[in-house]
Amino acid sequence: xxxxEPISKMDFIADEIEYLQDDPNAPSDPKLAALxxxxxxxVNQLDPIIREKYRDDPETLAEWEEAIRMRDDSEDDKxx
Length: 80
What we know:
This protein has 80 residues and is an all-alpha fold. It has one domain. Helix 1 packs antiparallel against helix 2. The protein has 3 helices and no strands. Helix content is 80%, strand content 0%.
């Protein structure tokens, strides 16, 4: 059950983000920023778990690494 906890949190955060995006003021909504920060923290928790679980499955691991790269690229764009 412990491994499922971060996934459940991510599902909740995704639902909240979707709800907030329906609001025209969502981009400036501090709740949205807080949810995105929580989501990134969960991804950081999941990273070593995913890498361990799929270490013998290069295709799945490559997909995960691509998702992580996209996240990192997005964070780099925000910093500019």
